[in-house]
Structures are given as C-alpha cells and as structure tokens.
Specification:
3 strands, mainly alpha, 3-stranded antiparallel β-sheet, 2 domains, Arc Repressor Mutant, subunit A, globular, Four Helix Bundle (Hemerythrin (Met), subunit A)
Length: 232
C-alpha cells in the first residue's frame, strides 16, 4: 500500500504538525495498514502532506522510541515487527492496574456509570459484525471510562503509553475472530459493578484481559511474518 492511499486524512498546517503526523502514522501501524517491513520515506511523506522533512524525521524518531519503526542509517526507516515481549508486558500491567480499577468502581459506582457503560456496549454490538476494525477504539473508551470513574485517569495514561504493540495484536484479533465473546466479558464487568461486587468485577476483568493469551498462538500462526521471531 502506497503512502498516498493510506487512510490518514489531512494535517492541520496551522498547528504544529509533528505530533499530528506521529499520531497518524502510529495509527496506520497499529491498524496494520503499514505492515512490518514496509519502508517509509521522509520525502514521500513530506510530499504527501506538503511539509518539510524535519517534522517527518521527528515523527520517525518518536515512533522508533516506541518500538514501531526501525531507523537504519543509510538504508531507511522500516516498520518493525511486533514484539511479543512488549505485548506480554503491556498485558501484565493492564491486568494489574485494571483489576484494581474495576474493584474500586464496584465498591462505590459513580452515578450514571452503569448506564453509560451499557450504552457503550450497545455501540460495540452495533459495530461488531459490520465494522470489526472499529471495535478497538470503542474498547479503549470502555476501559478509559472505568479508569476515570475510579478516579484514576492517570492510570489509563500509563497504560496508553505502553500498549501500542498489544494494540497491533488486538486489531488483528478484532478483524479475524468473533467479537461476541469480548462483548459478553464487558457485560460481565458491568454486571459486577452494578451488583457492587468488587471480587466478581476483578475476576471478570482479569479473564477479559487474559483472553489475548488464548488468541495469540492462532494470530501468530496466521500472521507469522508480523512477529519478531526472537520474541523481543
């Protein structure tokens, strides 16, 4: 897929473009529109958006720091394969943090929280069959809402900062596996919050976040070229 055909949209050239470009390219990698091994050209991307090479170079450096790009001197910049180690680390941290988040939500549910989460799940159900790739952002919204309701918005910020490799796997899972089970797990979390049962909420969340461990072997078998064979 050429850079001109990517679903990036346009940048707001009246505002700093470096962060915008970084976010746009990050999403293209997470959605696997830019597949592992693809070479990115500073000149092509600069021409695509009508910007100089400097903000493009800054975006490449940022994505390299996140483990999404590999910058090879004199050779170019390439989309990196998925790091299994980073996926597993992110899953471990998410489970540890979000188990406590839902326990707090269930112990003392914020006013209107259950109704808001139920509405989010209905939106997930509407997209699950027709637009499965759009499920991941809705899933993020669900988990972000829980962190905010627990009074721990910064906890979600920590998770967001380390889950990009995990998100690449989640995107493949959403497209290639039925989503009904994930939605059922979301409902179980909300049921436990509504029942004010912290233990059940914790168990439901841990089970939900452990599901990627079940899906990962099949994803790796279907997409072997997407993963770093070294496991790092």
């Amino acid at each position: 897929m050429g850079i001109e055909s990517l679903d990036i949209g346009q940048l707001d050239l009246s505002a700093p473009v470096g962060a915008q470009l970084t976010a746009a390219l990050r999403q293209c990698i997470i959605r696997n529109q830019l597949k592992p091994g693809v070479r990115l050209s500073e000149a092509e991307i600069g021409a695509r958006f009508g910007i100089s090479r400097q903000p493009v170079r800054e975006a490449f450096i940022k994505l390299s720091e996140e483990g999404l790009l590999e910058i090879r001197p004199q050779r170019g910049s390439f989309v990196r394969k998925i790091s299994l180690e980073a996926v597993m680390d992110a899953r471990f941290v998410r489970e540890a943090v979000e188990a406590d988040v839902v326990k707090a939500c269930a112990a003392d549910p914020a006013a209107g929280l259950v109704e808001e989460l139920r509405e989010q799940i209905r939106a997930q159900q509407r997209l699950a069959d027709d637009r499965p790739a759009a499920f991941v952002p809705l899933d993020d919204t669900f988990h972000h809402t829980l962190a905010q309701a627990a009074g721990r918005p910064n906890a979600w910020a920590v998770i967001e900062g380390m889950k990009t490799q995990m998100d690449r796997v989640r995107q493949m899972t959403s497209i290639n596996f039925p989503l009904a089970h994930l939605i059922t797990q979301h409902n179980a979390v909300v049921d436990a919050i509504e029942a004010r049962d912290p233990q059940a909420a914790e168990q439901a969340m841990r089970g939900h976040l452990q599901m990627i461990l079940q899906d990962l072997p099949a994803i790796r078998e279907d997409f072997p070229d997407y993963f770093d064979p070294s496991g790092t």
